[in-house]
Specification:
Helices cover about 70% and strands about 0% of the residues. It is mostly helical. The chain is globular.
């Protein structure tokens, strides 16, 4: 059912319905399936935020998060990987615009991840990132276009 349908049935404004849904999602961590949340767009509670919180704050497994958020494990891993890549760039002192360019993400998406990074402030992740990125570099070794830290110094 759309928010418009709910508006007609409940005789409430669309703004009130949206506000109530957002509050419910924030309080419960459950995603109400509607256009903005299904396609992860607009100002609705972001899948990436919920997934990052479930993983880094609540220490849930990828499988559990996938089930709770009705995503595939691959989608969960993509959100977490993007979060880690943005956080790594921040730790290296790279600004938002350059992060966007280097990671091939929109500036808006980078800003969303940066907000999540600041909200979570996960110190343990900083240690894991160095190991993960070393592994990542090893798997990409020999592929053209892969940046390493020495490439970033020239930018």
């Amino acid at each position: 059912m759309s928010e418009l349908d709910t508006k007609v049935i409940m005789k409430m404004s669309t703004a009130t319905i949206s506000k109530n849904i957002l509050n419910y999602e924030k309080e419960t961590g459950c995603i109400v399936p509607r256009r903005g949340t299904v396609h992860d767009m607009g100002s609705s509670v972001s899948h990436k935020r919920i997934i990052c919180y479930k993983y880094f704050a609540n220490k849930h497994s990828h499988q559990r998060i996938a089930q709770e958020t009705t995503h595939s494990v691959q989608e969960v891993e993509k959100y977490l990987s993007d979060y880690k890549r943005v956080k790594y760039c921040l730790l290296k002192g790279i600004d938002e615009e350059l992060i966007s360019f280097v990671l091939r993400m929109s500036e808006k998406l980078v800003k969303e991840y940066i907000e999540i990074v600041h909200e979570l402030g996960d110190v343990e992740l900083e240690k894991e990132l160095e190991n993960d990125l070393v592994d990542y570099k090893i798997t990409l070794e020999g592929q053209e276009g892969v940046l390493d830290d020495s490439d970033l110094g020239d930018l």
